[in-house]
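I'm curious: can you give me some protein's one-letter sequence along with its backbone structure tokens because I've never seen that pairing?
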Amino acid sequence: MPKFTKRLADWTLSDSTSPWFHFVKHFSWSDTPFGAIDTWSLELRRSTAKIMNSPDPRILLFGDQRAIIYNEAFAAVVGRHHPQCLGAPLADVQVDIIFEILWNMSLTAYDGRGARRTRQELLLERSGSMEQTFWNIFLSPLPGSDGYCDSVVGEFTDVTDLVVQDQRRSQGLDILDSVSKVECLPELWSQFLGALEKNAPDISYAMIYTAFDHSSFVRSEGLPTPDITPHDDTLQSATSYFVKQYQLAGSLSLPESVLEPIIDLSIAGSSRAPGLANAFREALETKEITILSDAALPNELSVRIADSGTVRCASILPIANLDGKPLAVVVLGLDPRRPFNEHMSRFVHCIHEAVCKQAILITLPQDQQQFQRKYEETTMALSTELRLSILKAKKKEEKFLRIAKSAPLGMFLYSPKERTIQVNDAYLKITGTTKEDLDKTAGLELPWLQTVSEEYMDVAIKEWQHLMTEKTPSAIEYKIHLDEHGEVYLIHGWLVDISDRLAKDTLLAQRLEDALETKTATEHFLDMVSHEMRNPLSAIFQCSDEILDTIQTHKNQPGMPSMTTAQLKSLEDAAHTIALCAQHQNGIFSDILTVSKLDSQLLTIMPEKIRPVDIVQRALKMYGQEAKRSDIITSIDVQDTYTKHISEFVMADPNRLLQIIINLLTNAINHTRSCRERSIVISLGASTTEPNNASDQIVFMPPTPRRSSSPLTPSTEQDQFSAAFLDSCSGQDVYLHIAVQDTGCGLSESEMRLLFKRFSQPKTYGQYSGSGLGLFLSKELIELQAGRIGVTSTEGLGTTFSFYIKCRKPTEEPASVPMATPRSPRIKSHRPRMSRTEAFNDRDLEFTRQPSPVRGLHVLVVEDNPLNQRLVAKQLRNQGCTVHTADHGLEALEFLSKTSITSSSTSGIKLDIVLLDIEMPVMDGLSCIRKIRDLEQEGFYLRRVPVIAVTANARDEQMREALEAGMDAVVTKPFRIPELLVRMSEVVSGQHFA
């Protein structure tokens, strides 16, 4: 928006040099009911400022005395009463119709109601004579400080032109209607005078003189022999006739004493009205209307008419037949209260035209009359249509001129001769010029170039030359007008001030850059925190596993140093406690990172082809031991709707779905472990339509209001999710239903109100109850997948959490390939599957007691952290692996060059698989794997080198980057050795592609 500078609007405080403001400011207000200006109230100053600043006539009646104050435009209305009435009470100046009207209307206005009069006639003194005017008057009450009316403002709008035009239009139609039906000349004169008497406010009087008789027709002296051949021109002919005498056929609004019965035009004749005779002679010879006014008006035509005054202007209208023979002369005395101007002249010509045409029609033969009548009707219709078209065009032109004047765009009209024709105010403001400046440069070549900056001068000149030579619109938005010869005659253009837009574009670009930097910084922070926390957690898990394995080995192997059962039990409990603490810490850490991703809009949905039953079974396996220790019975209920609508696979994000189920499952375990009846049932169902609140008495929570997305993300999470589905397959939509029902303590109404809120818990538990983020995150993750979650609970009987997410049926057999979201690149189908390892619990310990699936493998562990490197190597050796180590990627490449898989190697060091960290000095893991795959392409290695990325970089984008770089699989920290062993076995055997 453009900035505007405030201007002083109170004339009492202004230093304006205007003569009017100087006059009213120094007027003796102290001698009036208003009092001195410096004593005026704020309301009075505002009211007077309103009328003084108006360009139209405005008046203010103040106080009980209705004291008068008006603006400069109203002073012209008051006329000779100014300045005597300024400041005076209204009752003291009732000597004029204006103040009488104001007094009557103010009675209503002071009663608190508006008063209106339309088309009120006022006789005003203008240019030394009285003139008839018409006004729309509106008086509106103004409240004082107490709310009661203490003043009235009057608004006067001059509608004289509009009223007079309407009257003349009506007069013209009445005259035309009256004369168009007559069939003889005497009837024509009678009907014409009757129409004037009925409706002719512009005509003060009228007289009609007709040719005395046809035998008196003679040729005018000095004129050529008449040509009696008919001519096309109905009003002009080569023959000119002179009639010596005219007799009075009728009159209007004139007494008989002033009427001359016969006008003799002969030179030898004598007439009592020589001035009128001379006027007749001039009109008949020129065959055109003669206007007589002021000194040229004969005394016999300067007649005083009651209610209108002495006529000062008259018109002489000659009437002739088709051959030019004079038939009559019409004399019209014009109303002295209306000025003779262009509009009055046009009106008189219209009257003359109507009478002449009908007189010609009457004097024509019968067949020509019919033809002429049709011709006149057609001409009249076309003329009416033309007038309407011109009127509409003028109104449109006026409207567009008003629009152009107030438009915020700079608009201009140039001629090809480099002359500025017209510009609007915005053009002057934008270019910083004035109309006077434009006038001064009118004689210069291309004067408008004076407003163009020097750096754009060449461009402007080039575009101008293009306009003049090519005659087509220019790219800088000039509009070209061509005349009938195809030449440029007008150039119409727009000038737009784009300074604000450029500033906004610069600000937007800066903010976008800041947003990108913030996003990068946020991702870097999350990566750093994730990396620094996942590494020690991984070590804690592995240490606890080693303690438990050692205890198990001590139990199973005879001959070991004896330890009491209590000691073994104590060590085992300590190891379980370490694992439980680490698992709890990892859960809270994961929740916090997820919340951070949500807040930063970095969380994405990665649909894959999955079996929902497998996800539920995995969650139960992960937390089965914890439920078993609390004597909680867990089960899965696969409903008929599930088998009906989901044959086996759906497209969904397995990790987000697992995270939701784990949160609800651990919540159910915490609610149930202290109850008498302890059971948890996870139900699976499906539908092809979105569920509603009526389903199973579950009340779904309203979705969380989303803040507006940044320019870097899709408009809404649901849009992002839907786009991901559309990109994955064209299968049918299906809604997956999952409910977690427990027999726990249940929730009260007050506790249910705390559900799904950040960092809030309906109940607290003694041991690691959680961060209060689980249910909140579950709701957010469900809504990210176009679903909703609901709950039903009875205190003391249990709780059921039910949710649904939108999935899609895959159209092909499962390929287990991660699907790209709108914010991620497509991953080609030949890439191996990405694995995101979740935190493990006691069920993983059972793996260590089974024969190792990787016993005998030769493994290279590439890890820069000495502690992690030592722990992983030790655990793998305990599983029967031969382990080699390297501190960074360069050492790994050097070691690979010495193994049996290298074509040039002679040492024959055996190697089956590489465990490769990503964040390392000297050479990082991604650079290393790319080099390995390049060497494979070059034939440096005899076979493909199996490589698993073991990293704390757990973001989806980072894992995709690792797979695209050439990793066969990804295991994220923290991990347990049993999970790592399974992945190693899959990669070595090639099953990781399944």
